[in-house]
From TrEMBL, chain A:
Transmembrane segments: none annotated. The lineage of its organism: Bacteria, Bacillati, Bacillota, Bacilli, Bacillales. This is Urea carboxylase-associated family protein. Residues 10-180 form the DUF1989 domain. InterPro entries: DUF1989, UAAP1.
UniProtKB/TrEMBL annotation, chain B:
This is DUF1989 domain-containing protein. It comes from Cohnella herbarum. InterPro entries: DUF1989 (IPR018959), UAAP2 (IPR017791). Residues 21-184 form the DUF1989 domain.
Length: 241, 218
């Protein structure tokens, strides 16, 4: 399926994981208002290398993610970069929901009673997919929450913007490494709404648009990004790739 | 900027059951028993004590920066903050704090992040992640601790303000000589500290200094 588009629709409460080669574009589309997709990223060739929230934020002097930002690993490399973004803000500081939080906020549901309409939690979804990929709960780390805006005021108090994600909002990541992508379409833990969001999200995996070089927007976004790209290029050059 | 929440402790160093100085660039890893109180003292001021915690009975459940800040709906740690594991479990509570604010978004320095943040030539420099990994290597019995257990940590005595516009800044000088933070462990908790050797940023005036670690039984 080289160069063919591929897509999947992740239903509310749904999850997905898979290995994706570098140089692909991952376009996420919110098929309704108020979506949230929790994302974890690992180096497919070395699963101990993973998305690192602090390294990503402090290198780019930001507490949110948007176009131009790279998602850096704990080894100073670029796992992926945000190349298109209709929203301007994606959250990476508020984590995912647990079973207890999900039950407390939306009501206790069981598969026994409601079959596949029972309400999934972010932690359970991510744990299942991590184990499927040969990892486990020790590998749970701060994730990216696509489509969510969480900001803090002068006192440090966190606020969730309920009006942030409009229907058909999109964000596109471009992979810079071969990655394992782990997704959970579950609510942001700070979303104050007590009705479980029912927003499917479409993921399309599209071919790249050619080699990434020094003229690329994300590479040139900050000198820190350029050095992280250079680290990534060196990593693959050493492997003859 | 925001108020700093300063709360003093009545505990006396003479009654501590453990009292050690950790030099800059060194690591420290030790188990806390239920109810024990850990104090970290910033002996000369504006030093970063990069700290991680694990549920000692279940080490795959590590400290979680985002679970902790989401649990209290505030990005800054101070007296009253409950330090949570990835599962949501309460590991420790900060019971005293004469600094008033600590960071948990900035993470630990590493050789690789130094190349990104400063210059490729910084790769050889000593860093907190190396210190963490040496400590994990020396406590690796039964495969309990490995690189996979390295989660984003707390930076005691550091101030990393976030703006409402989503910017992240580094502001020096919130701590002072002798400032301390004290926390009580709920259960058996493994504590891991790297006393930061960072020579590339101005928050410690390019001069990393010792910290002191004390433990009380209650
Ligand atoms: Zn450090």
């Amino acid at each position: 399926m080289e160069n063919n588009d591929w897509s999947v629709s992740i239903r509310p409460g749904g999850k997905w994981s898979g290995k994706i080669g570098r140089g692909k574009r991952l376009r996420f589309t919110a098929l309704g208002a108020g979506a949230n997709v929790s994302v974890l990223l690992y180096n497919a060739d070395d699963l101990t290398e993973r998305y690192n929230m602090p390294d990503t934020l402090k290198a780019q002097y930001t507490a949110h993610l948007t176009r131009g930002h790279t998602l850096m690993s704990d080894n100073g490399r670029v796992l992926a970069a945000i190349v298109e973004d209709s929203l301007g803000w994606h959250d990476t500081i508020s984590g995912y929901t647990t079973r207890e939080e999900t039950d407390a906020k939306y009501g206790v549901t069981t598969y026994q009673e409601t079959r596949n309409d029972w309400l999934r939690s972010g932690r359970d979804n991510l744990a299942v997919e991590l184990v499927r990929c040969g990892l486990g709960v020790r590998d749970l780390m701060p994730n990216v929450n696509l489509f969510s805006k969480v900001y803090c005021d002068e006192t440090g108090e966190l606020h969730y913007d309920t009006g942030h994600c409009l229907p058909n909002s999109t964000v596109t990541l471009r992979t810079e490494m071969d990655v394992v992508l782990v997704l959970s379409n579950t609510p942001n833990p700070l979303d104050p709404r007590t009705i479980y969001p029912s927003v499917p999200v479409k993921l399309e995996v599209l071919p790249s648009e050619g080699a990434v070089g020094y003229d690329d927007y994300c590479v040139g976004f900050r000198p820190e990004n350029r050095r992280a790209y250079e680290n990534t290029w060196e990593y693959y050059a050493l492997q003859g790739r | 900027m925001a108020v700093f929440n300063r709360v003093e402790s009545s505990r006396q160093p003479e009654s501590a059951v453990y009292d050690e100085v950790v030099l800059a660039g060194n690591g420290w890893m030790r188990e806390l028993n239920p109810g024990q109180v850990l104090r970290i003292v910033d002996l000369e001021g504006n030093q970063a004590a990069d700290t991680l915690f694990y549920d000692a009975d279940n080490p795959e459940d590590h400290y979680s920066a985002v679970r902790t800040i989401t649990g209290q709906r505030n990005i800054y740690l101070s007296a009253g903050s409950v330090l949570r594991a990835e599962s949501g479990k309460e590991l420790l509570t900060i019971v005293a704090d004469t600094c008033g604010r600590h960071d948990t978004l900035g993470g630990a320095c590493s050789a690789q992040s130094n190349t990104v943040r400063y210059a490729h030539e910084k790769l050889h420099m000593h860093n907190c992640r190396d210190t963490f990994m040496l400590q994990l290597a020396n406590h690796a019995e039964g495969g309990k601790y490995s690189k996979r257990n390295l989660a984003p940590n707390i930076n005691f005595f550091m101030n990393v303000p976030v703006t409402p516009e989503g910017g992240l800044t580094f502001q020096d000088g919130v701590s002072s000589p002798g400032a301390y933070v004290e926390m009580r462990s709920y259960g058996r908790t493994m504590a891991l500290i790297s006393n930061c050797p960072q020579l590339n940023n101005p928050c410690n005036a390019y001069h990393p200094t010792p910290i002191r670690v004390l433990i009380w039984d209650c």
